Amino acid sequence: NHRRRCRPDPENTTPTAAPADSTVEPAYEHYSDILKSTLNNKEE
């Protein structure tokens, strides 16, 4: 799978790279929020 992604495919890599980057940050923020809430619940 990884080797297939490394193949030079501008049509596939360029469009997918943009949405992937834009979705990573919100997902990570949401994940950190979950971690924070879990830590708070454990403290209580």
Task: Summarize the structure in short.
This protein is mainly α and 44 residues long.
Based on CA atoms alone, the radius of gyration comes out at: 17 Å
Distance between the termini: 44 Å
Discrete helix count: 2
β-sheet strand percentage? under 5%
Structural class: mainly alpha
Question: How would the global form be characterised?
Answer: rod-shaped
Low-pLDDT stretches are: none
The helix/strand order is HH
Q: Mean pLDDT across all residues, rounded? A: 64
Question: Major sheet, described briefly?
Answer: none
Number of strands: 0
Helix content: over 70%
Which terms would index this structure?
44 residues, mainly alpha
Describe this structure in words.
With about 45 residues, the chain is an all-alpha fold. It has a domain at about 20-44. Helix content is about 90%, strand content about 0%. The protein is rod-shaped, with a radius of gyration of 17 Å. The chain starts with a helix and ends with a helix. The relative contact order is 0.08.
Give the topology, please.
Elements: H1 2-6, H2 10-43
